[in-house]
Amino acid sequence: MRKLYQLLTETYNRIEPHHNTWLLWLKKKSKEEVFEVAIGTILVQNTNWNNVDLAISNLFRNNLKSFKQLIAMETEQLEDLIRPAGFYKQKAKSLLSLAQLFTEIPSQGSFIPTRGELLQIKGVGKETADSILVYCFYEPIPIVGTYTRRFFARIYSEIGYLKKRYESIQETILNSLPSDYYTLGKFHALIVSHSQQVCNKTNPLCEKCILKSICSYGNSHELDTELMGIQEAIINPRSRKKK
Ligand code: SF4
Hints:
Endonuclease III, domain 1, about 60% helix, Endonuclease Iii, domain 2, about 240 residues
């Protein structure tokens, strides 16, 4: 996995696309930037970054730059402003619950919400909770998303990654990479970028991929029925359940 991290880092020095977004997410942040990243983890669910940018621009244009301000506004107005990100009713509820958690914090001392507290918010799953902990509170936690599962299943030729316990994949990552927030946050960013640009869901561009030489799928998927089965399960998850 270190080799993967190294190769991806060399290729995506600028972690394109969304270079500026990832730079913001990986650096130490001001309070206002923490607000932007935290709401971004919720707004980005089931949509793309362009839509998230539109929603965040709407909030900022209306001078909404903190959880205190967010909690003080009318729900309908919030829904309206974040509408470009889709699922705006559910996302508004999640943002308000998140704001509640962030504004209830003690004023002194450093506050870090627990994973359990974050998971109690409707609309916040493990990936979102861990993203908040890594990118807002610099906790050394591996983040596992759909991209991670798909990527590992292909690289290691192991269909189990598509359904493996979230925590077990986290353990695998922790056993292989340095456990600091920057490395783990960057590894997630690299996997997302690589998956969006090259290792996409339906038609991975293996011939152009810098990982081809160390990737099981890239090397021999046309000849290997197991690897073809992985691709079938990625495209159509139900096909695996039927077997
Ligand atoms: S070689 Fe193909 S399957 Fe492997 S990481 Fe690259 S694009 Fe994905």
